[in-house]
Design brief:
Its main location: cytoplasm. The protein has about 200 residues and is of the alpha+beta class. The protein has helices at about 30-35, 65-75, 85-90, 95-105, 105-110, 120-130, 140-145, 150-160, 165-180, 185-195; strands at about 5-10, 15-20, 25-30, 45-55, 60-65. The radius of gyration is 19 Å and the shape is elongated. The termini are far apart.
Length: about 200
């Protein structure tokens, strides 16, 4: 198995990159987030990889981080999720965002990905709930605690409105600090929206 590739980025496409490693060009499938993160054509790059082997093809899929690769493995273990759907999910959600969505059972967040309907999103969050601890998230994600109760629902509401996870968490935390732990969901969302708009 090929664990990673280090070389020069030769070309990129909508869903792939070509990496020249010692004169051999490797075609590597990737999420749009990975393609945006790896740099410009001609630069040195390193991608973590997963090799997919089937009866009629061998394909490499590349990831900007080991956490993204680990999530790809978890996602493709869910019935109905192939490489294309897993990459679509990873194109809209960072590993830390996906971790929070699964931990909070937020199927709407997962369903934003192309090719993921409500039933598949529900299956993904249900089947992966007990496995999210197996994924290495990195220091930024570990520093962000998953809020509980109304605060968790308020963060989910802000995420569904298009706020970035860090913005949503910070706004809800500030609102909860001002309103106290007994705040209702409605009050938290209203105040968090005002704080996020500042």
């Amino acid at each position: 198995m090929i664990a990673h590739l280090k070389g020069r980025l030769e070309a990129t496409g909508i869903d792939h990159a070509v990496i020249d490693v010692g004169g051999v060009g490797y075609l590597v499938g990737a999420s749009s987030k990975t393609l945006a993160a790896i740099g410009a054509v001609g630069e040195a790059v390193m991608l973590h990889t997963e090799m997919l082997v089937a009866e009629d093809f061998i394909r490499l899929v590349g990831f900007a981080s080991a956490a993204e690769r680990d999530w790809f493995r978890l996602l493709t273990a869910v019935q109905g999720v192939g490489a294309r759907v897993a990459l679509a999910i990873l194109s809209i959600l960072e590993p830390a965002e996906l971790n929070r969505a699964v931990a909070a059972q937020d199927k709407a967040m997962v369903a934003r990905a192309s090719g993921v309907g409500p039933k598949l999103a529900e299956r993904i969050v249900r089947e992966l709930k007990d496995k999210v601890g197996a994924v290495a998230l990195g220091p930024a994600a570990l520093a962000t605690a998953i809020p509980a109760g109304a605060a968790q629902d308020a963060v989910s509401a802000l995420l569904n409105l298009g706020f970035r996870p860090a913005e949503a968490s910070a706004a809800v935390a500030a609102a909860e600090e001002e309103l106290g732990p007994a705040a209702t969901l409605d009050a938290l969302v209203r105040l968090a929206l005002r704080k996020a708009a500042k």
